[in-house]
Amino acid sequence: MVMTSSAITLTGTCAFRLMPHDPLEEGPSSAVVTLVGAPGFTLHYTWVHPTDGEQSGVVLVGGPDDAGAVEGALFDTWHQQPGLMSLRGARAGDRVDLAGTYLEEWGWTIAIELGGETVTMTMCNVVPESALAMAPPDGPSMSAGPYDVMVASWTR
C-alpha cells in the first residue's frame, strides 16, 4: 500500500469464529494503519465479537532486517490481554507473516497484506497435537495445526 501520509483510516468487515467447526460470523470493522519510521507500522483495528460486543486491538510491526525478518507485538481486548504477545516473522513486500506462542505449545499466526487500496489481516489459532487427546470423544473432529479465527478486510 502506498501511504501518502503517516496514517490511513479504513473501514470494512471482520469475521470471527472460536472453534474450527464454527461458522465465521462477520461484523463491521475499522482500522488505522500508521507508519512508524519508514519501515515499521501499527495496525489498530476494531471488530465485533458475536456475544461480547465491540473489541479492539493493535499489531505493532518493526522494520525488516536485511533478511526480511521482523518482530512484532499483539494486544487485543478479546484475544490477548493483559500483556503483549511477542511475535516474530518475515516481511516480503507488502505482506507480513507473524507467529507467536501461548500456553507453551499453542500458536497464533497473523498475516497482514498492505497492498493496493485494501488491507487484510488473517489471524489463525494453531492447535498442538497434544490438545487432540483432551478433546471430547463425542465432539466434532479436529485436526492439529492452524485454522482461521479472524478474517478482516478494510478499504480506504
Main attributes of the structure:
globular, Lipocalin, mainly beta, single chain, 63% strand, 1 helix, 156 residues
Structural class: mainly beta
Radius of gyration over C-alpha positions, nearest whole angstrom:
16 Å
Please state the second-level CATH architecture.
Beta Barrel
Largest sheet: 10 strands, antiparallel, barrel
Q: Helix fraction? A: under 10%
What is the CATH T-level topology?
A: Lipocalin
State the order of secondary-structure elements, H for helix, E for strand.
Answer: EEEEEEEEEHE
Spatial strand order of the main sheet = 1-2-3-4-5-6-7-8-9-10
Tell me the number of helical segments per DSSP (H or I, 4 or more residues long). 1
User: What is the subunit organization of this protein?
Assistant: single chain
Which consecutive residue ranges, at least 5 long each, have pLDDT under 50? Answer: none
Structure description:
- With 156 residues, this protein is mostly beta strands.
- It has one domain: Beta Barrel (Lipocalin), CATH 2.40.128.
- It has one helix at residues 129-132, and strands at residues 7-16, 25-36, 40-49, 53-61, 69-76, 80-92, 95-102, 106-113, 118-127, 145-155.
- Strands 1-2-3-4-5-6-7-8-9-10 form a 10-stranded antiparallel β-barrel.
- It is globular.
- The N and C termini lie close together (11 Å).
- This is DUF1850 domain-containing protein.
